[in-house]
Write a structure and sequence with these properties.
- It is a single chain.
- By secondary structure, this protein is an all-alpha fold.
- It is built from four helices and no strands.
- The chain is elongated and about 55 Å long.
């Protein structure tokens, strides 16, 4: 594996652990795809640093378990804004 890929995977893991970021937020921050973030954590990092991969994996598991809540909140906000626009218009 190339050095820059190992370095990126490690940086991504530390970022996820420190910030609690989602895969989507992490991908945006590092300028890579969500698939790359996922592969870096679940496959590449387990070869480089299994303990770090496990720690980052825990954060991602929590984020995955909570994503339906974030989706519901986003939908609620969307309709609240529509209602406000209709009332003021």
């Amino acid at each position: 594996m190339k050095d820059y890929i190992e370095e990126r995977a490690t940086e991504i893991a530390y970022y996820i652990i420190e910030t609690g970021a989602t895969v989507r937020q992490t991908a945006r921050k590092f300028g890579v795809s969500k698939s790359t973030v996922h592969k870096d954590i679940t496959e590449r990092l387990t070869e480089i640093n299994p303990a770090l991969a496990a720690e980052a994996g825990k954060v991602l598991a929590v984020n995955k378990a909570e994503r339906h809540i974030r989706g519901g909140l986003a939908t609620r906000e969307k309709y609240l804004h529509r209602k406000e626009a209709a009332c003021s218009g």
